[in-house]
Design a protein that fits this description.
Order of helices and strands: HHHHEEHHHH
Largest sheet: 2 strands, antiparallel
Structural class: mainly alpha
Number of helices: 8
Strand content: under 5%
Number of strands: 2
Strand order of the largest sheet: 1-2
Shape: extended
Distance between the termini: 26 Å
Radius of gyration: 22 Å
């Protein structure tokens, strides 16, 4: 089964290489389904090899009979994509989603909203203490929406990695982990001695074990 980002990349590749059996293609999807990301990836991949024209009909309708052929080449502007992901849209009820890769800026601090993973608590948290209460609520809503801290859906990969390091007396596995958090943690440990890595993992294991 493909992930959402893999599906989007596959669609972009199919359009660019002409694998789809159509001359024209229409991208339709729900809000936050990935249409804007698909467009961004398509433009980045196409670069100067294609003449690109698109209609950004956000929450609007338009009469297709009024569209006419033109020689004018509209200039692509990054602000179109940025605006799609900023205040007007992220402030809508139920739109508390931190979209990637462009992200969302805070309503008060204007800082990019981001998550960090608390290894000891085995839970996601807001990445900065400087976020406003409203921004923290936005991030918490994102966490709850995708059940990132729900024990029923929590990945065991980091926990299993920690246990593996302990069982091997501090030796760090050299293979690349397919879980982003586990891989980041693995790279952090690579800068430690074997004894230090063992102590860190033992401390985490003692605290995190009851949560798994």
């Amino acid at each position: 089964m493909r992930s959402g980002s893999e599906t989007i990349k596959a669609v972009v590749e199919d359009i660019l290489t002409g694998r789809l059996p159509y001359r024209d293609n229409v991208v339709i999807g729900d809000n936050s389904s990935g249409k804007t990301l698909l467009l961004k990836l398509f433009i980045e991949r196409a670069k100067d090899s294609e003449n690109i024209y698109f209609i950004d009909a956000v929450n609007r309708g338009f009469d297709v009979k009024k569209i006419s052929r033109t020689e004018k080449k509209p200039e692509y502007k990054r602000t179109i994509l940025d605006t799609r992901l900023q205040e007007t849209y992220s402030s809508l009820p139920g739109a508390e989603i931190i979209l990637q890769p462009m992200g969302v800026n805070g309503m008060d601090t204007r800082e990019p909203l981001a998550l960090q993973y608390d290894v000891l608590e085995m839970a996601f948290r807001p990445a900065k203490d400087t976020y406003s209460d409203r921004e923290c609520r936005f991030i918490d809503a994102h966490i709850k929406r995708f059940r990132l801290n729900d024990p029923r859906y929590r990945s065991r990969q980091l926990f299993d990695f920690v246990k593996n390091v302990i069982d091997s007396e501090g030796k760090i596995p050299m293979y690349e982990c397919n879980n982003m958090i586990t891989e980041i943690f693995r790279r952090k440990l690579l800068g430690r001695t074997q004894e230090e890595a063992l102590k860190i993992c033992q401390s985490i294991f003692i605290i995190a074990f009851p949560k798994m």
